[in-house]
Amino acid sequence: MDKKKFYPLWLLGALLLIVSQVKAQDAITGVIKDDTGQGLPGATVVEKGSSRYALTDVDGKFSIAAAKEFPFTLQINMTGFQTQEIEIYELTAEAVEVTLKTANLLDEVVVVGYGEQKRKDITGSVASVPIEIKSQPVASVERLLQGSVAGAVVTQTSGQPGGGVSVQIRGNNSITAGSDPLYVIDGFPINNDYSLTDAGVTNGSKINPLSSLNTADIENIDVLKDASATAIYGSRGANGVVIITTKTGSKNKSSVNYDAFYGTQEVIRTLPLLNAAEWWSLRKDAAANSGKIATIPSVSGYTLDTTGAGTDWQAAAFRKASQQSHNISILSGSDKTRLAVSGNYFKQNGILQNTDFRRYSARINVDHQYSDRFRILANLNASNIRSNVAPANIVSNLLQTPPALPVYQNDGSFVINSPFESALQNPINSLYNQLNETITNRFLGNISGEYTITDGLKAKILVGADVVGNKQNRYLPSSTAEGQALSGNAIVGTVSTTSWLNENTLSYDKDIDDKNRVNAVIGFTAQTSESKATIAEAAGFATDAFSYNNLATGITSIAPRSSANDWSLASYLGRINYAFDDRYLVTFTLRADGSSRFGAGNKWGYFPSAAFGWNLNNEKFFQQFKKISLLKLRVSAGTTGNQSIPPYQSLSQLAYFRYNFSNTTVSGYAPNTVPNPDLGWEKTFQVDAGFDLGLFKNRLNIIFDYYYKRTSDLLLTRTVAGTSGLSDFYNGQASTIYQNIGEVSNQGIELYVNSQNTTGPFKWNTIFIFARNTNKILSLGGGVNQIIPNINMPSIAKVGYPLGSFITYQADGIIQQGETPLTPQQNKSPGGQKYRDVNGDGIITQTGDRVVISNQPGFTTGLTNTFGFKGFDLTIFFQASIGGKLYNQNRANLELGTGYVNGSKVLLNRWTPTNTNTDVKAAFQDPAITISDRFIEDATYYRLKNLSLGYNIPKTLLSKIRIETLRVYVSAQNPVTWTKYTGYDPEVSLNGQSLINKGVDSGVYPNNKSYQVGLSLSF
């Protein structure tokens, strides 16, 4: 063998050996440990000022190239631990050993509105959603608050994918004005206004505007609850403030991240209903007890089943539905620039046939330090949402449609109508063939410049826009009962809303000396919004082929509609935080808001607050209590406001009318409202007292608050007297006017406990929350004692009771032979429902025998346990609501027992002359429902909200495929619920936009339980 031929290879090997030795000598090695001495895998070691970084291995060891010049700084970061920096002065063979301290909850930096503070310096009541909860796969951000933030009550108003969620923080402050909190997304304040995504065309659940936000982009969620924390938002802070901060890149570090999951969903439970033979027996009994004979109607093209099982409409309507999400993000950064770019695809099929929700979204966040003094920030988000919505009343229809009716005719086409007395449509036909879609495009973004004038003093200008365009399409083909009479009906509508924001602030943050620290902000902001809507409609189509795409071919002309409105808000704000010696904390806030929504003399509102804190643990006399690492006492008081009413309510408005002159129809206008120039702010005064307690080196942290809120000058609607001659032409109802009348109070307690139970190889952390709120209506103004918005519903607003209480008769068993028939129902014979004679006058009347029943829960709670061991992580999240009540309207319909519609299985135990020992009334053809407490049920529930098990693949395996981190997991949402409630789900409400109607379960799209498998990787 000729060695000269291999000389280049020998040379290459020698060079590689030399390079490897040089590299080994120029590398800094070390180990990162926790306070128990265990190595910490996955910690990031960054050389400050460069792009070099390293990750620790499974034993906590790392190796990183040394800088060219000494000294230099290494920064060590790891979730759950305090960031630590070490100086490297020379290159040695000795390994660096660093012990990270467990992160202190009270040292966290929290966004508090126009600034940040460490939690230990906060004087107000501020809560944050734990990282364990933020990882849940949900469609909208509000659902992350449930069971994780004390005092936040989250109600599922619809299980429709992307559907409504109602949030109240520390109770209901208003009655007919908006009650949801203000959401601030990367500095842009928005109300979760459903009109933004509702052109007024689709029939069914409204799509949640906040579902446009990709939850995978969220870095932090902070909730401001008391007046000291929310007063900086003044007129919009009365219902609390939810501050959402999205992810940004990291300095001198880059990563590409991919997160995905796929899962299935199913209805939590179905309701036990009569089959065809059982229903036909009920129908015959009801007819016989009413002196009639039940007959089978004549039908053509299909056969009615009155002897077998018939159709299970729930089984035909509900399905196991898929759900998936794919999110990719690029996080990068240098000394001067941090960049985050992400894209998301989310698709959720509904558990009802032909319903779904799909979202595409993209985000760019940039933080660029242009110079030592000037910084530029941009947060830009765009999304496209498309949803097929379940038609209204579809759930009620599938429960009530007689099981004797088949889904399909003999030729395979859908049966259209029920041939029985109730005019019910085939719900499966409606689900499949109605087109009921909504499409929303949204851009939400802002760009700001921050200039450092001098040490600690910064000026910031922010300009932002929120542009929302919604298009809705609805088509009722002639093959459906809804479209048959019109030979097809097509409706197209659009609504576009553009909001502009400008904020100009001056902030000062400085440690004056060793004992005095000041943080202050002043500013001026302006926001304006304009909306325009249009609806076009036609009917009478020769074919259904064009759907809504060719309105001109409809032979029946329907007048188009359009509208426009705008509003604006100008504000001055100021806040100062002062800390002395880390012992005494003071916060003063003042905001002045001018709103176009109010009368000429009441446009401006002023919202002050003050708060005080005392860190007792920093007092010399307190040093003897070694187990207590932190004890801060807090007290605050202040006023916030609410302006959440439609524009122009202080003005006289005109309505369009048609008039007939000499047999000719002419157009005209006339007033339909009266002006109210005195209309002004709804104001909430709140006091809060609490403490923050840290024990055992802050391994146990406890936060407690007591609060009292009183809302006065409610923005309450009143009906204008019919003698005024005013009416709401379009709605066919009496005209209403907003007035500042009435008062509501809320008081309660909140408890938050965070415990690091174990550290080391096996980690166990527990978070527990508890909240109790008591709501009471103090006044409705003008001598009015109660408001009943709908006589066919149980809801009432009554002085001395919580908002959304029920007014009902009290069921008192069944009328037996020889008993006085105490009932307002038509059926007064034995077997009828009997009611309690409350006033003892021998008859049952609305005025004398109905009682008011509270529906508010006694308390809400959440418990999260997180475990970690050698790459495995397990999260178990329980959530509960105790003591609340629901009016089960579905049950009331299903126990009517007329035989006109299907019924509940409990009707098998109905009263008959041979079955008198029962609480179920006899079958009778009386179609009227008597609202009684029989259908008010205990809505207490305990729910396993989330169960997640994950595993982080060891880095020694990942290094071979050049992946930094890889986590695989399985999870379950709502897998188990413990409740006595007999409906689909105790976590429901008929209408989240009307607080008076809360607590009514009437045909709400049911919630689901779901199971997912997913992965998260970065490289």
Name the descriptors.
mainly beta, 22-stranded antiparallel β-barrel, 46% strand, 53 strands, single chain, 11 helices, 1019 residues
Strand and helix layout:
Blueprint: H1 7-25, E1 27-33, E2 44-47, E3 53-55, E4 61-65, E5 72-77, E6 84-88, E7 96-99, E8 109-111, E9 116-118, E10 126-128, H2 131-134, E11 152-156, E12 165-169, E13 182-185, E14 188-191, E15 218-224, H3 227-230, E16 241-246, E17 255-267, H4 276-289, H5 313-317, E18 321-333, E19 337-349, E20 356-369, E21 374-388, H6 394-400, H7 427-433, E22 435-454, E23 457-476, H8 481-484, E24 489-511, E25 516-539, E26 556-580, E27 584-595, E28 604-615, E29 628-642, E30 654-661, E31 664-671, E32 682-695, E33 700-712, E34 715-719, E35 727-728, E36 733-734, E37 736-740, E38 743-758, E39 762-779, E40 786-787, E41 795-798, E42 805-808, E43 811-814, E44 833-835, H9 846-849, E45 851-853, E46 859-869, E47 872-882, E48 885-888, H10 889-894, E49 936-938, E50 941-952, H11 955-958, E51 965-979, E52 1000-1001, E53 1008-1018
Parallel strand pairs: 1-7, 13-16, 48-52
Antiparallel strand pairs: 1-4, 2-3, 2-5, 5-6, 8-9, 10-15, 11-12, 13-14, 15-16, 17-18, 17-53, 18-19, 19-20, 20-21, 21-22, 22-23, 23-24, 24-25, 25-26, 26-27, 27-28, 28-29, 29-32, 30-31, 32-33, 33-38, 34-37, 35-36, 38-39, 39-46, 40-41, 41-42, 42-45, 43-44, 46-47, 47-50, 48-49, 50-51, 51-53
